[in-house]
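The protein record filed here.
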Amino acid sequence: MQSLIRRIYRERRRMAIFGTMAALSGYLFFIGDDRSLHGLPVSTIASLGFALGLSLLGLVVCVLMPAYRFVIEALGLMLLVYAVLALYFPALNVDSAAIPIVNVILFMGGAQLLHHLFYGAWSDKYLNQAVHIDRATTLTRMEQEDLWLSLFPDPHTREYYYDDTLIEMERVTDQPGALHVVNSRGNGMFVEQIVHFDQIKRGWSFRTKYEVLGRARGKSGKLPVYTLVFEPRDADIAVHIRWERYDFPTRRAMMHWIDDWAGRKLDEMVEKSETKMAQINAAMGYGQEA
């Protein structure tokens, strides 16, 4: 249940954007209708209906078919564009279209074009941010020491580490405070990183800079940085993440914000930590009666 709540929460920005566009679209589609129901204009009712109905449908798609969630904002914008065009070209309305399937094809084609404009790599050469920062927070009932053991990369406590894609983690002999980390990416692929620690407060926070081997640095030459902070809150621990990247494509920054990318990443880390520590505690017999 906690995992589902987290997933729904991470869709809040996407649903707010989609719901607003759906509400405006519903209003425009019925703006010329003079009828009313219980004192409310049909256009207002349509606006509310579009917002609630389509937002609920969009949320179901995002939760049950998360791979398709990135089309939601493109569909919302296309719906709004289509509603505006229908004001000037009534033939676009399905109820007055000579061949409705053509309207559907035009709509889906337009949505595909907008999705490409949003997230296509074509803009990466022209639209970049000097620095982009992602932030997020999530809550867990884990013990603070367990949380530290599972989230802090340390070769000495590797058995507690949350990341099940980890292949290798060892200290770099000629670079004090640095780790060589290798992670699997499936299908025989892997990624190598050199992780540099520049701030560590055991049990409370750590900050790292990391370099992906084989990947060219941006124009600034600066390495990405991420920080994790653990904040006790009554019975919970609030885990904060801050991810800082340089020379970052604007289209990816927009996607990260709408998608709450850092929040999803943090939820995944914490959920894997909870599962890992539960397995370890169960194997050690914690919580079982003698």
